[in-house]
Amino acid sequence: MLNSLSGRFLVLTIIFVMLAEILIFVPSIARFREDYLLSRLERGQIASLALLADDMIDADLEEELLRNAEVFNVVLRRDEARQLILSAPMPKPIYATYDLRNASAFVLIRDATARLFDTEDRVIRVIGNPVREAGLLIEVSMETGPLRAAMIDYGLRILLLSAVISVFTAVLLFLAVQLLLVRPIKRVVGDIQAYAANPEDAHRIIQPSASVSELREAEDALQKLETQLTSALKQKERLAQLGSAVAKISHDLRNILTSAQLFTDRIEMSEDPTVKRMAPKLVGSISRAVKLCETTLAFGKAEEPAPRLTKVKLNEIIEDVFEAEQLTRSDGEISFVDDLPQNFTVDADSEQLYRVISNLVRNARQALETANQSGEVRVSATNIQNAVEIRVSDTGPGLPEKARKHLFEAFHGGARKGGSGLGLAIAAELIRGHGGALILERSDQEGTSFLIRLSQAK
C-alpha cells in the first residue's frame, strides 16, 4: 500500500498534520501554564477576601483555605501597603519568581518549555494583577510539581487529539485522492493496456473524459499519439500488402522479360542498319528490367544485395539515360546536357548508379513537362579529394513545399500529381549502400539541383 500514490498521500498527510500540531503544541502549553498560574492567583485572592471579611479565622480554617488554593502564602498589596494575608510553612526556599503582568509570548513559551524539562519539584513565586482591581498586585507561592503534572496531562490530550485529527484528515485525503486521481489514472492505464492489446483497432483509442485539467491534457496527448500510431500501423500494413503484391508482379514480370530477352538474340541477327543500331540498346533495357525485378524480389525478402563496385564509365551511363529519356519525352523543347569530362570513371555499381541517375533525370524532365515549359536537364561531375560529386540539375519550377519536407520518404515525397515518391526513396537508399549521400542542393523558381556524393577508393 505504501508503494501506491494514495498510500503515500496518507502517510505524508499524517506526518504533515502532526508537524503542524507540534508547532501549535508549544504555544498551547505556554498558554495552559499561564492560565494555570492565573487561576492560582485568583484562588489565593478569594481565600484572602475570606480572611479580610472576618479577622477571627482560626489556624485550621486558614490552612484549609491555602490547601484549596494550592498555595503556601498569599500577599496582597492594597493602598501601597504590602500585606501577608495568608501564610503556611514552605518546604523549600523560593526557586524563582514569575511576573505575569507584562510577560511576552516569548517569555511565556520559554518558561513553559523549561518547566516541562525540569523534573524537580520546586517552590516558585507568582505575581499578577488582582481580579476586579481588588488591589495593586497579588503574589502567591506554590509548588511546581502539580503544575508540571497538569501540563503533561494537557500535552498528552493535545497530542492524542492531534493524532485523531491527523488520521481523520489523512483518511479524507486518501478518499479524495482515490476519487480524483487514482481512479482516473487506473482508467487511463486500463485504456492503454486495452489499446496495446490491439493497436490497429481505432475503437480502442482513448477518449478523454478526466475532470482534472492536468490529467485531461495527458489524455489528449495520449489520444493524439494513439491516433497517429494507429494510422502508421495501418499504413505499414498497406505497404506490406503492396510489397507482397509487387514481389509477385516482379516475379511474373521477370519471367516475361526473360522470354523477351531470348527474342532479342534473333533481332541482333537482322541485317537492317536501324535494327542493328537499336538492338543493343533494347537488349540493355530488357537486361536492366530483369535486374530490377530480381532486385525488387530480393528487397521483398529484406535481402537487398550490396553494390558490386567496379570502375564504371560515367559518360556511357549518362548517354544511355539521355537516349532513353529522349525517346519518352513529349514535344516540349527540353535539352539534355552532358557536362562531364571525357572518360570520367567512378567506383560504383553500374546498374544501381544507372537507376539513380535515370530517376533524377526522369524527375527533372517530368517537372518541366508538367509545368509546360522548355528547359534544360544537365548532368555534371567532379573529383574532390577521395570522393566524386555528380550533380543533376534542371531549370524547372522547383519542388513543392510538401515534397521537400518528405523528400526521401516512400509514398510521401512525390513531387508531381500521381507520383508515389518511391523513386527518390530508392535512389537515396542505393547511394547509401555505396557509402555516399543523395542531397537536395537547392530547389527554387530557377530550378532544382541534386548532388550525389560517392566515396572513392584511395
From TrEMBL:
It comes from the Bacteria. The keyword Mitochondrion does not apply. Residues 215-242 form a coiled coil. InterPro entries: HATPase_C_sf (IPR036890), HATPase_dom (IPR003594), His_kinase_dom (IPR005467), HisK_dim/P_dom (IPR003661), HisK_dim/P_sf (IPR036097), Sig_transdc_His_kin-like_C (IPR004358). The lineage of its organism: Bacteria, Pseudomonadati, Pseudomonadota, Alphaproteobacteria, Rhodobacterales. The chain crosses the membrane at residues 6-30, 158-181. It catalyses: ATP + protein L-histidine = ADP + protein N-phospho-L-histidine. It comes from Lentibacter algarum. Its EC number is 2.7.13.3. This is histidine kinase. Residues 248-458 form the Histidine kinase domain. PANTHER family: PEROXIDE STRESS-ACTIVATED HISTIDINE KINASE MAK3, SENSOR HISTIDINE KINASE. CDD domains: HATPase. One of its GO terms (molecular function) is phosphorelay sensor kinase activity. Keywords: ATP-binding, Coiled coil, Kinase, Membrane, Nucleotide-binding, Phosphoprotein, Transferase, Transmembrane, Transmembrane helix, Two-component regulatory system. SUPFAM superfamilies: ATPase domain of HSP90 chaperone/DNA topoisomerase II/histidine kinase, Homodimeric domain of signal transducing histidine kinase.
